[in-house]
Amino acid sequence: MPGKVRVFISSTMEDLANERQSVVEQVAGLGLEPVNAEGLLPNGSGSWDLLSDEIENSHIFVLLMGDRYGWIPDRGPGAAMDKSVTHLEADLARASSLPILLFVKRLKYGADSASPDAIRRDKFRKEVGAWEDGQFRAEFDLAIDLGHKVREALQGVFQDTYLKRAVRKKELSNAPSPQAIDQVPPVPLAVPGTSAGSVLLAGAGFSISAGYPTASSLAEILGNRLGLTLNGSEMLERHSFAEIASFAERKMGRGALVGVIRELLDTPIPVKPTPAHIRAVQSFSSIFTTNYDLLFERACQLTGRKYAVATPHRPLPDPAAVTIYKIDGSIDDPDTLVLTHHDATRAATAKAFWEAVSGLLTTHGVDVIGHSIRDVTSQRLLSARNLSLPGTYVCPYLDELDMIRLATYGLKGVIETAESFLTPSKST
Fold this sequence. Notes:
The chain is of the alpha/beta class. Helix content is 43%, strand content 13%. The protein folds into three domains: 6-173, Rossmann fold, CATH 3.40.50.450; 181-212 and 272-427, TPP-binding domain (Rossmann fold), CATH 3.40.50.1220; 215-266, no CATH class. The protein is elongated and about 75 Å long.
């Protein structure tokens, strides 16, 4: 997937199963791609060729060290080294110049230190402890403790840190490889999943799938700059993003606030439009989005679609094949960004913009994709739409409560990903 930072997770299996799962959840929750042996083969084992290829094509290596040294292969590549698979993986990560994040579990008092496995474990720990090439190190006791520490370390991917620079260097060193986006034909496609003549309301799901940080990551990093200690999910449970941004603006100033957003969207790996972006601009003439990024614009450029961009407090553009209504502004025009409560109040006065948006929702159905519908603006727009026209809400996971909520807006729930919903071949 273009733009995704790949994080390889290495450890022994039997003693660190819960810890590995905790790390996988944290990596995925940040919008990064977790890579581990369990994800490669069901039993967590596999050929060294497969494992080594995954390591060499990752950007970050997370090494977990627990009670065990681990299985030592007795045949195949690496057998002659008399080292565990985890040890071999760590050696390859260092040889590949991957940034290594090391997390060492504290051993319990009286832990085995005399068995052959324990002796090898302690020797491996000592070897790793002697590394002097700037690798990150931390200790942990419980899986939940480990998860928090991994998340905090990986937040550096989005900030101006050693980790971000190391990932960027690793990516630049890779030979260019063809991306899926280059295989999408640049011609309009009929997408049978969409409602005829509908408009698209697109949310953060589009951006996250391309490689941009999640909303909780944005909130957490911004909160950390302000000295707040809650993680991103906890912050967003207690405060809206607008509240956090408003506080940041008072403490840091507008320029610094916008600078943080720019820094977080300046990802270490260039983010490209996904196939879902491509198919969206080929399928909808009007796209409403709360995303700040430029991925829909770039999708139009890649497919040769003429487009125009509308934001609050900017003159409405002339008609085009695709008009992108950026409800919360655009990162390439900081004055249009809707970050704080003051920004939202100011944007609400943009009469011509909102009349154009409301008018389209009166005469067209709507497909909501990659959007949580939790922000006040989107709720207001959907509440006022013409309920006699078709409406669809696309999400990989829906439950009964979701269906009740969607009924309020006259939306039919569809359990699919954005890409599968927008894939023309699925009905053939």
